[in-house]
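Weekly sync, protein design subgroup
Attendees: M.S., D.O., the rotation student, P.L. (late)

Item 1: inverse folding check
M.S. brought a backbone from last month's batch and wanted to see whether the design step gives back something sensible before we order anything. D.O. pointed out we never logged the input encoding, so this time it goes straight into the notes. C-alpha cells as presented (421 positions):
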C-alpha cells in the first residue's frame, strides 16, 4: 500500500473534521460573541447542527438565548435546546394558548398571577402573589404536569405579547420582569415537602426552557425569615438567574420599577394607581384575596399517581452502571399493563421486554430509550396480546457516576375491566 496515499487520506479526514464546530474553537470554550464576525460564525454553525428541528420563526435572537445560557458552548447549547423541544412537545407548549388548553378551574377561582402588560422598555411585566397563595391547596388540586402547564401558559402568554410588539417595532431584547408580592406570607402554608418539591421542579423547568428571558425578579414585602426560605432554592438557581433577583423588605423597589412601568399599570396596593372600577385599591377584579382553596378541588388519590404524594409508589435506587427490572405476569390475553414512574433528579432509560416463560429468551417490545421523567412522571400502558412475562426495564448502565432514585408503580388490568374502562 502506498504510504503517501494513506497520509493524504488521513489529512483529508482531519481537514473534513475541522469543519465541525469542535474545531471552530467554539465547543467547550468561551467566545467573544460581542464580536460580530464571531457571532455570525457560531450562529451559522449552531443553526446547521439544529436544522432538523428548527422552524422558520426561530430567528438568530432565539438561538442566541440558548447559546448565552451555555456560555456559547455549542455542544451544551444543542443538548439544552433539544431537551427543551422534547419537553415542549410533551407538555403541549406550542398550542397552550389555543382552545387545546383550558385553564384549571382551581386557578380560575384562585388566580395567583396576572400580566401587567409591557413597560416603556418593551419588557413584559407579570405580578405573582406568593404571599396569599395556598401552596398546599394547589399541589393537592393539580398534578405536577398540570402545574407546569399552568406556568408554561403564563410564560407563553408573555412571550406572545413580546412577539406582537416585535412585529411592530422590529428586533429588541425580549425580556420579562416578575414582581412577587410576599405580603401576608405564612411559613406554615409553605413549609411542606410536596410544596417545596413542586417549587423546585417549576423553577428548574423555567430555567431549562426559557433561558435568557428574565430581565429582573423583584421579591417584595418579604418577611424577616425570608433568607431561610430563599436558601432552599438557591442551589437550584443558576448564576445568571440569581444575579437578577432583587429582594426588598421595604417599598424601595417601587422607585426602580416605576422608572419603566407606568404607575397606572401597577395595582394601588403596591404603590401604583391601578384600582377596581369602584376605586378599590385591592383590585378584587384581578385577585381573590380569600385564597384558601376549598377541598372540593383536591384530586382523588388515584389522580396523584406518579408524584411524591402518591403513597402507593414504590422506591428503589438504580445504581450507576446497572439496570433494574420488574417482571409482571400476564395470565389473560388482552390484559392491559399499566405503569407510571419518576426519577428524583436525573433522566433514565426505559424499555419493555417479553418472554413466554422463565426459560424463554426475552424479546424487545419497546426499545430502551432516554426518558426525561425527573420533572414530569412517565405514564403509559400496553395491551398484552400474549400471555407470559412482561419485563419493565430501567437502564442506568450509561451513567458512570450517578445513581438514580426511582419511584415506580405498575399493575396488570384484567381484560374485562379494561374493556369497561
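Designed sequence read out in the meeting:
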Amino acid at each position: 500500500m502506498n504510504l503517501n496515499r494513506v497520509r493524504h487520506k488521513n489529512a483529508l479526514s482531519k481537514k473534513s473534521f475541522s469543519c465541525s464546530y469542535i474545531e471552530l474553537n467554539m465547543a467547550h470554550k468561551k467566545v467573544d460573541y460581542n464580536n460580530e464576525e464571531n457571532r455570525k460564525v457560531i450562529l451559522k454553525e449552531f443553526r446547521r447542527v439544529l436544522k432538523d428541528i428548527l422552524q422558520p420563526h426561530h430567528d438568530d435572537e432565539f438561538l442566541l438565548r440558548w447559546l448565552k445560557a451555555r456560555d456559547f458552548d455549542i455542544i451544551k447549547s444543542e443538548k439544552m435546546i433539544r431537551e427543551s423541544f422534547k419537553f415542549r412537545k410533551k407538555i403541549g407548549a406550542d398550542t397552550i394558548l389555543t382552545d387545546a388548553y383550558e385553564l384549571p378551574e382551581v386557578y380560575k377561582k384562585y388566580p395567583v398571577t396576572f400580566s401587567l402588560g409591557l413597560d416603556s422598555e418593551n419588557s413584559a411585566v407579570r405580578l405573582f402573589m406568593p404571599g396569599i397563595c395556598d401552596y398546599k391547596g394547589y399541589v393537592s388540586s393539580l398534578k405536577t404536569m398540570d402545574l407546569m402547564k399552568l406556568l408554561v401558559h403564563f410564560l407563553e402568554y408573555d412571550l406572545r405579547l413580546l412577539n406582537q410588539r416585535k412585529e411592530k417595532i422590529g428586533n429588541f431584547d425580549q425580556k420579562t420582569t416578575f414582581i412577587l408580592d410576599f405580603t401576608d406570607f405564612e411559613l406554615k402554608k409553605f413549609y411542606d415537602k410536596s410544596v417545596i418539591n413542586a417549587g423546585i421542579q417549576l423553577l428548574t423547568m423555567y430555567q431549562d426552557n426559557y433561558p435568557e428571558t428574565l430581565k429582573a425578579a423583584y421579591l417584595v414585602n418579604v418577611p424577616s425569615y425570608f433568607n431561610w426560605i430563599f436558601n432552599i432554592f438557591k442551589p437550584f438557581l443558576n448564576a445568571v438567574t440569581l444575579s437578577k433577583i432583587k429582594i426588598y423588605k421595604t417599598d424601595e423597589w417601587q422607585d426602580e420599577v416605576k422608572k419603566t412601568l407606568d404607575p397606572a399599570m401597577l395595582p394601588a396596593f403596591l404603590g401604583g394607581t391601578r384600582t377596581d372600577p369602584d376605586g378599590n385599591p385591592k383590585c378584587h377584579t384581578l385577585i381573590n384575596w380569600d385564597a384558601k382553596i376549598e377541598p372540593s378541588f383536591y384530586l382523588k388519590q388515584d389522580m396523584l399517581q406518579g408524584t411524591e404524594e402518591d403513597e402507593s409508589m414504590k422506591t428503589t435506587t438504580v445504581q450507576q452502571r446497572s439496570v433494574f427490572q420488574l417482571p409482571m405476569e400476564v395470565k389473560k390475553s388482552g390484559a392491559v399493563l399499566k405503569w407510571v414512574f419518576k426519577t428524583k433528579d436525573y433522566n433514565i432509560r426505559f424499555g419493555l421486554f417479553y418472554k413466554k416463560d422463565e426459560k424463554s429468551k426475552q424479546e424487545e417490545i419497546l426499545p430502551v430509550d432516554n426518558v426525561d421523567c425527573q420533572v414530569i412522571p412517565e405514564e403509559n400502558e400496553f395491551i398484552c396480546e400474549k400471555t407470559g412475562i412482561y419485563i419493565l426495564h430501567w437502564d442506568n448502565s450509561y451513567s458512570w457516576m450517578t445513581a438514580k432514585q426511582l419511584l415506580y408503580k405498575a399493575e396488570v388490568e384484567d381484560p374485562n375491566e379494561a374493556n369497561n374502562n
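Discussion: The two ends are 70 Å apart (CA to CA). The longest strand covers residues 404-413.
Action: P.L. to compare against the previous round before Friday.
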